[in-house]
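Entry 14. Ran structure prediction on the chain below.
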Amino acid sequence: MDPVVVLFVRADSIYKTLPGVDCYDAERDARTWPGGCSVVAHPPCRGWGRLAHMSNATEDEKALGPWAVAQVQRWGGVLEHPEHSRLWKSCPNMAQIGFTLRVRQCRWGHRATKPTWLYVCGCRPEDVPPIPNGPDEGTHYLAQDRRRNVRSVNAAKPRLPDREREATPPAFAVWLVELARRCGKHNSAISLKVEVNAPRDGNGDAMLDASATKETALCSR
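Output, structure tokens:
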């Protein structure tokens, strides 16, 4: 079994129970990882999201995002961040190296929909593990979204407790580790070839929706 390292985990993370996985929590400090294998990275996101202007994220904390991108690009693996994370705009080379998947964590058992972007380096889209069949909407919401259409969808849903909001669903953790293992034999030649026109997000990025087909590499700006 090829080793995988997971960076920026909670002290009680589900990743710590998985075989062949080495975890770096806050006490261990992800920045001390020497490299050497494929990686799953969950860098702090509050400084990069929609409400970044209201967060208390320091510049040192924000710097962990680009640092994590560099590790994924060097060693292969996957970086997870919320949908519409500004990290993609801050690191333009993400458009030339690797590809991005757009997923909903409710497919792996999260009780909220939790739209998520996954930045992947070291394998091709067709090598991504199968996406589970599951609901397209969660039964709970993470936070009251100010957008009117989302607010109306969430109106009848209970709010998810903060601790559960931050946790990675066990099935999603297993899936991300398997994806990172498939990126283990990282080859910079497996960069990114944009094959077709893809749907664009609000930042102008082409995104691959993992609920649909995985036929093309997407990340063109």
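Helices lie at 59-75, 87-90, 148-154, 162-166, 170-182. Will compare against last week's run tomorrow.
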